[in-house]
Amino acid sequence: MYYETVFIVHPDLSRENAAKLVDELIARVEKHGGRVVKRESWGLRELAYRIANRRRGHYFLVVVDGEPAVQQAFERDLRLNEHVIRWLSVRIDEVSEEPSPIIAPRKEGEGERAA
Q: What is the CATH T-level fold of the domain 2-59+66-92, as seen in this structure?
């Protein structure tokens, strides 16, 4: 089973420290018998609303292949980590090799409205 998790890391961490945090979380997933099949950094982005008096956060996407117990352990690690301010996980049937629409380069004219 695949589980897609998007989580937001506290903006006060540097980009390098946020990446190290993700490496640690991935190591814990692998320790529990899971496998990370996709990982993306979406960068420092604006939040839709304030969270803990913050307006920005480092966004990450991680897709885990493993049993439900592996995903539960990953979510527990996210919940207990003081630097993770929000996360959301969903189960998916297949993993796309393409980059997420969030980071995929836009084609010219895409996303523009007709006048």
A: Alpha-Beta Plaits (3.30.70)
Q: What is the pTM of this model?
A: 0.86
pLDDT at 113: 46
**Ramachandran assignment for 52, one of left (phi > 0), alpha (psi -120 to 50 degrees), beta (any other):** left
CA 43/CA 49 separation, integer angstroms? 17
Least reliable range by pLDDT among 15-19, 32-36, 67-71, 93-97: 93-97
62 vs 36: CA distance, rounded Å: 7
The letter for the amino acid at 50 is R
Mean pLDDT value across residues 43-51: 93
CB 34 within 8 A of CB 51: no
Q: Where are the domains of the chain?
A: 2-59+66-92
How high is the mean pLDDT of the chain? 89
Of the candidates 84, 83, 100, 89, the residue with the CA atom closest to the CA atom of residue 66: 89
Provide the token pair at 88. Answer: 């959301």
Q: Which amino acid, residue 17? A: N
